[in-house]
Structure formats: C-alpha cells, structure tokens
Amino acid sequence: TGRLSSTDPNLQNIPIRTQAGMEIRRAFVTGAPDRMLLSADYSQIELRILAHITGDEALIEIFSRDEDLHSAAAAEIFSVAPGEITGEMRAFAKMVNFGIPYGMSDFRLAREMGVSLDDARRYMERYFARFPKVHEYVKEMPERARELGYVETLMGRRRPLPELRTRAPAVRQAAERMAINTPMQGSAADIIKVAMLRLAEALRATELRAQMLLQVHDDLLLDVPREELAETAALLGECMSGAYELCVPLKVDIKAGENWLDMKPLS
Fold first, then answer.
1. Cβ within 8 Å of residue 172, ≥6 positions away
2. Using only C-alpha atoms, what is the Rg of the chain?
3. Assessment of whether the complete model's pTM goes beyond 0.90
4. Which residue, 180, 136, 169, is CA-closest to 46?
5. Considering the chain, what percentage of its residues have pLDDT values greater than 90?
C-alpha cells in the first residue's frame, strides 16, 4: 500500500494497549529538557477517503458535519436513538466501519464480535442500507481490478494485483481484499508523505527548529522547542489538513507531551 516501515526496532509497532507497552512508549522522550514531543494524527483518514472515492451521501454528510461516525453507524445498525447508544454498541459499529470496507465477511464479523451469523448478516445489511455506495464499492472494486490487473491510489500510484486471476481461492480472496483496501490505505500513505514534504519545506522557510522524528501510518511525531510549540503546531496542522483536497475535511488531532505516552490534546 506504500506505507513506510522500519526495522531494528520496528517503530511502527511500538505497543500501547498493554501496561508493558505503555511503559515502553513512556521511554521515548526528547533529547533535551527544553523540548517537547508534538504529535499530529489524521482522524479516520481512510474512511474519509472512502467517502471521497464512493461519493456516498450519508458518509459525506456525517464527516461534513463533524459527527461521530461510529455512533451514527451504531444507531443505524442497532436501530436505536443516538441517546441510547452504549459504549459496547459504538465499539461494535467501529469494527463494522473499519472492517466492512476492507472486505470483512459476515462470518468474521460474527466471530470477532461473538454474535450469531444471522445477527452479523442483519447488522451488515443495515450498514449497507445506510451507506449504499460503500456497498457498491465493496462489490464492484475487485471485479474492476481483475479487469485492469491493478488498483490505483487517488494520486495515481498503481498496485498490480495479478493474484486476482489465480484459481487458488484463498490467494484470490486475499487479493480481492487488497483491491478494496489499497485505494484507501494507499491514498492515506500518499497524502501523509505529501504533508511531510510540505512540512519540511515550511519549517525551512520559517526557520522553526522542530525536527520530524517519525511517521507511524497516519501520525507524525516531531521534536519541538517549548517556546515554538504553538507556532509549530499551527503549521503542522495546516500542512497536514491541506495536503490533499477531499470532498470532506481532512481532520487532524494534535497533541503534545514530555514523552510519547503522556500526550495531551492542544486546543
């Protein structure tokens, strides 16, 4: 998909969900006490790209209004009012939002969420009824890619997928998921690289002393002098949100902290 990766250590996979993982994250600090870590993360960029690619009106409206996509999907899937949505419902809807556009099957959804196959199918039907053009995309993209032999990102970078024509079912199905996934994940990878180039140029032009340290998929991490934090954060947000024009806003969440774990949102 064009994502950057690293080894020795693999900095894209520093854990955060376990207690041990959190302590590892806390170990990442700046090189001097007068500097801070600054983080900027694209919010749900792949789903925003999905809205752009498919032109699904319901998905576009949710992002344009800056609503919570997972809560909106939960209300639809479970047929409840917004005020009746529980944390468990939202977590389920989040899995559906991220899973179905990547070719998640009803069987896998049932297994992952511990529900019956009939329930999983019913939830998926409700989801697709709410977002019909997403359904069209999921159905049509593998066949379109099979005809062309490749898929493209928004910026025109191609990924050949000859495995779509193989007779081996498991290999072919994996390639079909790649055909659905790559235009979203690959476009996100392209967009953040453009943002990095723009930021590097802007930092040179302003003579700010921030240093780009790391890119972790949709997240950029910088080492910034404390007295330049606000100015650098504004520049960072501008470079990232303006890296590519989608039909919905590119939203960026910015945080800062003394270490990589204890990051607080900047207003």
1. 163, 164, 165, 166
2. 20
3. yes
4. 180
5. 70
DSSP sequence for 31-75: SSTTEEEEEEEESSHHHHHHHHHH--HHHHHHHHTT--HHHHHHH
Closest residue by Cα to residue 235 from 264, 257, 204: 204
Residue scoring higher pLDDT (145 or 267): 145
What's the Cα-to-Cα distance from 84 to each of 30, 94, 108, 180, rounded to whole Å? 44, 16, 26, 33
Closest by Cα among 109, 183, 108 to 142? 183
CA dist 186 and 158 (Å) reads 9
- Structure tokens that stand for 216 in this block: 């972790």
Q: How confident is the model at residue 31 (pLDDT cuts 50, 70, 90)?
A: confident
Helix/strand/coil for 262: coil
**DSSP letters for 84-144:** G--HHHHHHHHHHHHHGGGT--HHHHHHHHT--HHHHHHHHHHHHHHSHHHHHHHHHHHHH
Amino acid at position 84, single letter: E
